[in-house]
């Protein structure tokens, strides 16, 4: 999915500021995910990133039923093995 095709929700914009996530990190995950999974009807794009010398799993939740698709929320977690299923 091209990043140009995705809209960002107000909630996602609020979360990137609150959680210290950058737009370039979100774009990297959307353009080059390590894994895509479905949770609660949303497609979750996820990728391990090195942020400040620590590994995190960045998870971007996208509602693909909307046209254009809408990225609705995002968060990073250090609990990589809990969510990444390779």
Could you give the topology of this structure?
Elements: E1 7-8, H1 10-19, H2 23-31, E2 35-39, E3 42-51, E4 54-63, E5 70-77, H3 80-83
Parallel strand pairs: 1-5
Antiparallel strand pairs: 2-3, 3-4, 4-5
Structural account:
The chain is of the alpha+beta class. It has a single domain (3-80), classed as YaeB-like fold. Helix content is 27%, strand content 41%. The protein is globular and about 35 Å long. The relative contact order is 0.25.
Number of DSSP helical runs? 3
Evaluate the radius of gyration.
12 Å
- Going by CATH, the architecture would be 2-Layer Sandwich
| CATH structural fold name | YaeB-like fold
Shape: globular
Secondary structure: helix percent: 25-40%
Q: Provide the succession of SSEs.
A: EHHEEEEH
Classification by helices and strands: alpha+beta
Please provide the count of β strands.
Answer: 5
Could you report the average pLDDT, rounded to the nearest whole number?
93
Give start-end ranges of low-pLDDT stretches: none
Q: Identify the CATH class.
A: Alpha Beta
Strand content: 35-45%
Largest sheet: 5 strands, mixed
> End-to-end distance, in Å?
21 Å
List keywords for this structure.
86 residues, YaeB-like fold, 3 helices
């Amino acid at each position: 999915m091209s990043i140009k095709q995705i809209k960002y929700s107000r909630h996602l914009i609020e979360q990137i500021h609150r959680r210290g996530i950058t737009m370039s990190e979100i774009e990297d995950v959307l353009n080059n995910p390590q894994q895509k999974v479905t949770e609660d009807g949303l497609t979750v794009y996820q990728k391990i990133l090195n942020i400040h010398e620590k590994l995190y799993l960045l998870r971007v939740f996208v509602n693909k039923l909307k046209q254009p698709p809408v990225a609705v929320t995002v968060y990073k977690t250090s609990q990589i093995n809990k969510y990444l299923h390779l």
